[in-house]
Design a protein that fits this description.
Length: 321
């Protein structure tokens, strides 16, 4: 949807352009160096129409990958709504952090799930708009959110340390002490083993986690190579590098969307294992939200396996959860 330029905004732009062109006229030919309100609005509308311009190219080349992402996002969205319903059994026991607080831990879990879902959706929307480098930066944010969520919902002390921060300075110190990846990676491997995954699957999860964290950290730290390459889009047809100002569909998005889908798969697989083998939680069958949340999760895991993994790995991982 293109933005509607109000009369007030148009008047503000008109006033500036009129003043500018009068000043230019004193020293130069205004037809050569002046500009018009129509040109400004045309530029604004061009920027606002990026998703429309790139839609057909992206869905011609990445349709299945993008639809897989939407399936995973739908699954986590339903899970976010399901876990803290007032009139339904909840996955995390109310005694989970009773040593520290009387709060309902499922409330925090619900909020964390909502952020994961929305971050994933934002990545898809950035890709659809042709902003792959910006989507890649958010993949790094999503990865950290997922890794921290898995850790805190399985460890009472970690949950309390994460929840009980009072200001930005304390949040920063808590992150460095408990939640930076060098600390998290070993905790996550313990959880992966605890939920019952076979070692060959754990090894693959560890390798992929490490790869994603390292690969996408280079984007948010604005390394020179990321800044230079990131301003271009790679053509799907001939791998030619095109300027991506204003958003342009890029072959590079294939790698980005694969990383997003792996993170959604990893989170779905881990929450499933945690619910069953750590919480020993069985979703109520007579609840309308859980009725959608569980099959959507199973569908995403199954479809992801069909698209990505071989049958041998699927048989191992589906059996242990």
């Amino acid at each position: 949807m293109k933005p509607k330029v109000s009369l007030k905004m148009k008047r503000y732009i008109d006033n500036y352009i009129s003043t500018y062109n009068k000043e230019i006229k004193k020293i130069e030919n205004p037809l050569k160096y002046g500009f018009t309100t129509k040109e400004v609005i045309k530029t604004i509308l061009f920027l606002s129409q990026a998703e429309k311009r790139n839609h057909s190219t992206l869905y011609k080349n990445l349709s299945d990958d993008l639809l897989l992402s939407y399936l995973g996002i739908a699954s986590i969205s339903y899970l976010s709504v399901a876990v803290c319903q007032e009139d339904s059994q909840k996955p995390i026991s109310k005694d989970f952090i009773s040593e520290y607080s009387s709060m309902n831990p499922n409330f925090m879990f619900m909020n964390m799930l909502g952020n994961i879902s929305n971050n994933a959706l934002a990545i898809v929307k950035l890709i659809e708009t042709g902003l792959d480098t910006q989507a890649r930066a958010l993949v790094r944010v999503l990865a950290e959110s997922i890794f921290i969520t898995i850790y805190v919902i399985t460890d009472q002390e970690a949950f309390w340390n994460y929840y009980n921060v009072k200001d930005t300075d304390e949040a920063k110190n808590t992150w460095f002490k408990y939640f930076r990846y060098a600390k998290l990676k070993n905790k996550l491997e313990v959880i992966e083993n605890k939920v019952g995954f076979p070692q060959n699957l754990v090894n693959e999860l560890v390798a992929m986690r490490d790869y994603i964290y390292k690969e996408y950290s280079s984007i948010i730290h604005s390394y020179s190579i990321s800044s230079n390459v990131g301003s271009y889009a790679v053509s799907f047809d001939d791998e030619f590098m095109n300027i991506a100002i204003g958003g342009k569909a890029s072959f590079s998005s294939k790698k980005t969307i694969h990383s997003l889908n792996w993170l959604l798969f990893y989170f779905s697989l881990m929450t499933k294992g945690i619910f069953q083998n750590i919480y020993h939680f069985k979703p109520p069958g007579n609840n309308e939200i859980w009725r959608m949340a569980v099959p959507l999760r199973e569908c995403y895991i199954k479809v992801y396996f069909n698209v990505t993994y071989n049958e041998e790995l699927e048989s191992y991982s589906m059996n242990v959860t």
